[in-house]
Amino acid sequence: MIDKEFVGIAAGICTAVSLVPQFLKTIKEKRVEGVSSFVFVVLFFGNSLWVWYGVMLNEWPIIVTNAFSVIMDITMFILKMKYRNKS
Amino acid sequence: MIDKEFVGIAAGICTAVSLVPQFLKTIKEKRVEGVSSFVFVVLFFGNSLWVWYGVMLNEWPIIVTNAFSVIMDITMFILKMKYRNKS
């Protein structure tokens, strides 16, 4: 029987890692492609609610993964605003 | 006391809705911007693991949201392959 924490951690690593290439591409090209600032706001609310949900379930893989996503959402939103005039 | 199902559903709607603009933009412009096909493969594994995790916890907001994400990952990967020569 595979432990649920193990599955949660593996899931969290995959979905967190998937955010990194877009972030690196943004830093390198100094522009945020393909995604509107509105999407980052919706994601910010969504991931924040997932953190709350994780706290309610007391499941730390949900909390840690979505807290990382919240930080990325805020960072990408700031970069989107910063590079706005260059896009 | 707010029910955890309510928070999970609200979280799931936000993160699912955030995928729609990128999808519509892709359909409209017939090209997949900013994200590599590798990212969709990683997301496919990540979201599939989240579905498994949701099944283990018996939490259907996790299952439904990530099942939707898996479908979107596959769709975007197919569109990425389809529009490859046009990018």
From TrEMBL, chains A, B:
It comes from the Bacteria. The chain crosses the membrane at residues 6-24, 36-54, 60-79. One of its GO terms (cellular component) is membrane. Keywords: Membrane, Transmembrane, Transmembrane helix. The keyword Membrane applies. Signal peptide: none annotated. One of its GO terms (molecular function) is sugar transmembrane transporter activity. This is MtN3 and saliva related transmembrane protein.
